[in-house]
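Table S2 (continued). Query chain:
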Amino acid sequence: MNSNLQFAVSCHILAILAAYPDSPVTSEIIAESVDTNPVVIRRIMSRLRKHGLVISRPGTNGGWRLVISPEELSLRDVYHAVSNEALLVLHQHPNMDCPIGGNIQNTLNSVFEEAQTALEAELSKVSVARVLESTLQGRNKSM
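Corresponding output:
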């Protein structure tokens, strides 16, 4: 699963956990909501746990919980936990003898960095609590 899809699924997962702050939620319950296999959920949860966003408790009453309050957990935090690649990437082998190919990477790199910065700035404005609230209200418009 690519990191952009993992990001969307992670937001879904964390909204579920935020909806049930007083009880652990199993991978199976989360998988049912996401409409995927619990193994996929556990892989993503592993990344979220490594970044200190969730914890798990094994056993009959076990499951996943948020470590950080949903009001304080921004989508930027989630993005950094699951994204291991840049949003926009340069092609690697332009012809350096070409006037365009020799300079295209520097030009695009600057644009791509600005776009990445803008994306992360927008994501930092939205909390998991806000995603949950908007989802429960059934909004189809921008937050």
